[in-house]
Amino acid sequence: MKKSFLPVIGLLLLFRFSSFGQTQAEVLESPCDNQTIQKQADSVKLLLSTGGFSILREASITMESNYDIPIIVPMEEGTRYQFVFIGDLNSNTYEVRMYDYHEKQVIYQKHARDDREENIIRYSYVPRTSEYHMIKPLQVNAQKKKDLCGYVMLFSQPAASAQKTR
Length: 166
Known about the structure:
Blueprint: H1 5-16, H2 35-50, E1 54-63, E2 71-75, E3 80-87, E4 93-99, E5 105-112, E6 120-125, E7 131-140, E8 148-157, H3 159-165
Antiparallel strand pairs: 1-8, 2-7, 3-6, 3-8, 4-5, 4-7
């Protein structure tokens, strides 16, 4: 892959995942209406908001087993971010990979059904430079190949608040 992947993928994602670009106040529409995932998302939002984070983006997404969903987001140098992926409870494996603008993998997390946190992957990240990053959540479900529900959220914490929590 070359550096030129961002504009092409960005345009494709703009049309397919326009709900990820919505603000917190806007209503999310999704074919996934999973109350359990929504309750988990609400709990994570409450937890992170009490820790000084504010939500930048959130979306309910329909996924297919074994296929990742590329999400491209701009990130500012020195800002602390929290990314959260909540997968379908019936899936066996959940993964999230994050790449910087130069396609270097900077985050990799994997949970299996036996893990304590099960279907939620959450990580913190502070970029060294202001640039676009690509986040790729994936889930594996042996019984259901299509129409898996997932939920993604991106939070930020202002630099002043981030200094207090270090």
